[in-house]
Amino acid sequence: MVKSPLRWLAIASLLAAGVSPLFAQDNNALLDLLVRKGLLTTGEAEEVSKEAAAEIKRAAAANPVETRISAKLFIDLSNLDAENSAGGKLSSRGTGLDVKRFYLGVTHVFDNTWSMNINTDSAYSSSTGATSTFIKTAYVQAKFSPEFIVQLGSANEPWIPFDEDLYTYRYVENTLIDRLKFGNSADWGVHVLGRSGMVSYNVAVVNGGGYKNPTRSKGMDLEGRVSVEPVTGLTFAVGSYYGKLGKDVEGAPSTRTASRYDALVNYATKQFELGAEYFSESDWGFTNSASSDKGEGWSVFGRVKLGDGPYWLFGRWDTDKPSQKLHPNMKENYFNIGFEYVAIKGVNIALVYKYDHIDNPASASALAKSSEIGMFAQIAF
C-alpha cells in the first residue's frame, strides 16, 4: 500500500483526467513528474496507476453511460442474366454496381437498465427509381435482467435477424424466409427477449406490416422464437408467426389469418459451419383475399475455412414450393457458391456465383431462370 500523503492527491488527479482515454499520456506524465521530484517511488507510482484504473473501471460499471455509432454497407459488382419461361430476357439483366443496403445506427446507454436505439435502412427501389430511407429500428429498452429485456418501438423480429446472425452471408443473399418475402426483419410493437443459460427466447406483439409500415389495425400479430444451445456452437431453434399482417383495417375485408412455422439447426466452429432451415406458411399475403394459399421451403448452408488464413469457401441451396394451392406445379431451386476473403474485421469480400430456377412460374412474364456472378462485399463497424 502506498504510504505517501500524495497518494490520494495523485489518485484524485488521475481520476479527474482518466474519464477519457485521451488523457492517458497526461496521466503517465504526471506520475513520471512525481517520481522525478522524489515525491513518489516507482513502485508507488505503479500502485497509484493501478488503483486509479480500478476506480475508473468501477465507476464505468456503476454508470455505463455511452453512445455507440454503427454502420453497415452491402455492395456488389456483378453480371446478371434473367429470363422468363418463354425465354424472353428481363430488364433486370445486365452488368453494374449496386449498393443493396446501407444501415446507420446509434445506440445510447443511459445506465445498466435503460438504453435507446435508432437504425436507418437505405436501399434503392426499382419501382420509384430512387433511393429510399426508412427507420428500421427505433426503440427504448429496459434490461431488467439478462433473462428479461423489454423493447418498445420498432425492433428486430424474433426470427429473421436471429437467422441472419447464424447464416453469416446476409451481404450475399437474404435468408430463406426473407428472400421469399414470408416475414419481416423488424416491426413496431412490444418485444420481450432474454437468455438463461443455454436457452434464449424472443416474443413480439407487433403491428404486422413491417418496419416500413407503422400504421395500426384492429389487432396485433404475434411472433415468437425459442432457441437452445446445448453445447458451444450447436443451436436448435423453433419459431412461429400468427396474425393479419397489418391488413385488418376498418373498411377493408379481412377474412384470413396468416401463419408461419420455423425450425433451424446450426453447428459452427472456428473452422467450419453447417446449418439447415425449414418453414411452412399459410395465407401469407392473402389475409384480405378470397383466395387461400400455402407454401413451404428448405435451406441448407455451410462454409469451411481454408487453412489458417482469412479465406472461406461457402455455399447454400434452397428449395421451395411457395404456392402449393394456387400454383401447385411451381417449384424453385436456388443455390450459391462463393470464395470469401476477410480483409480485416468488418471488411468481407467474396467472389460469388448464384443460380435460380423456377419450374412453372405463376405467369409467363415472371422470372423463370437467372444466373449471377460477381464480387460482393460487406463493410461494417
What features would you describe in this structure?
It is a single chain. This protein has helices at residues 7-17, 24-36, 42-62, 160-167, 176-179, and strands at residues 66-84, 94-109, 114-125, 130-145, 148-156, 186-196, 199-206, 221-231, 234-243, 258-268, 272-282, 294-305, 311-321, 331-344, 347-359, 367-380. The protein has 2 domains: 7-61, no CATH class; 63-380, Porin, CATH 2.40.160.10. Helices cover 15% and strands 52% of the residues. The relative contact order is 0.11. Strands 1-2-3-4-5-6-7-8-9-10-11-12-13-14-15-16 form a 16-stranded antiparallel beta barrel. It is globular, with a radius of gyration of 26 Å. The longest helix has 21 residues, at 42-62. Strand 10 and strand 11 form a beta hairpin. The protein has 381 residues and is mostly beta strands.
